[in-house]
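To whoever is covering the structure queue this week,

Two jobs came back overnight. Logging them here so there's a record in the thread.

Job A:
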Amino acid sequence: MPICPGDSVKKLASAIVIAALVSSACATRHEPADTRVVATDRELESCIAKLGNMDPSHSGALDSAGISLVNWNIQKGHKPDWIADLAAFSDNPHLMVFQEAALDAEAWKAVGSEHYRSFAPGYKTSRSLTGLMTLSTVEPLAQCNLVSVEPWLRSPKATLVTEYALTDTDKTLLVVNIHAINFTFGTRRFKEQVNIALTVVDGHDGPVLMSGDFNTWHWRQSAVLQEMTEERGFKVLSFDNDHRTRAFGQVLDYIFVRDLQVLDSSTADYSSSDHNPMYVRFSL
């Protein structure tokens, strides 16, 4: 039975073994040259064009002096306890960045009911559609979605970019929510997806926060991610009590900031998802 994206990290080792056997059995087989794996140049250009166009009629801005954000892969919300855990961990943050969020879940009546929703579709079955969800207390100025594809499983992995006005400045905040490619050998496909997101960031003159589930279960992926973000001037958040989920000793979830001051950061240890949430409070 195939392992589907978003299944518990505990199944990751088995999935990798299965993929390795497939690779061994098909050693001479290669991915078709025309197979789409990352967003096209046209999609990237369209995304960049949507950003940075401040609408003078737009109302609502995040407070530059203090913005709170929670990032969490909620494992499709299969365990209802995640709602109570989120409320206990952080009371109504300005930004909530979710991976593996079910679009039609009843949970959104209780979580961020007064927030604006930005959604990027990812994995779809006959019963549900899951993907990335970014909730915000103010309306985003712009949103764009970029889709990559798992090289082996052929399932979509999304990147969601949203832009927000800030008080006391004409600069805007870019928030990048990413669920990275998981089942692949080497780092090329992973690097391509992250580079697409960072190319969008390159065109932004203002602060940036990038967070998500990067699926960095191999040290090579972790090293590539660190190198690519450092080159763009990002700083990675660290946590005094680090409860982030790990696979093969490697952290899977990250928050990166650029041109932002971190005021506070924390994680929690919950059983309501196979990932644990991260929290950050920051200012311009």
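Job B:
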Amino acid sequence: METSPIADLNTRRLSEADAEPLGRFFELLAADAETTRFFHPHPLSQVFAADLCARQRRCRDRYFITQYHGETVGYSMLRGWDEGYTTPSFGACTHPQLRGAGLGQLLLAHAIAESQAAGAQHLRLTVYKENVAAFHIYRKFGFVFKDKNEHEWIGLLDLRRPLPAHPIHANLTKLDAWRKRQLAPAA
């Protein structure tokens, strides 16, 4: 399922072939303090990526990779179905250098569409209260929050109701500048 009208930016379900790029992405995430402060649903390692990609054919949970011109820029998941829940839990992370490029909104919009297509009536997530940027995005999409504990909120989105209409765009200028830096020879 395509998440953006931007050419060469796509989100798709993981496959066994994604083990290497996902593993590299996980290691990049694991080395970033801000990422690990807010995103730690499972080990961010090559070994976990290989295992996750190998079991995609037999799990009901859904894991996605987002790439721009073939480079991994995001990862997202809808979990809980394998454990018997009817409401999936959303989690996502974007490349640390691409924060603020609109990718989080694209990943969330994709997860909402996937959840609806799977027949889910709600979408759940947990967010740290200090993660103001993510919280703002989730509220914009219509999530309703309650305290989970002193540090986190639980958000719930009713997928049976019309979702708030708002444009979702990735910042192509930021994506292209990042890509240009990736392609530049090391000095």
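Note for Job B: The mean pLDDT is 91.

Please reply-all if you pick these up so we don't duplicate work.
Q.
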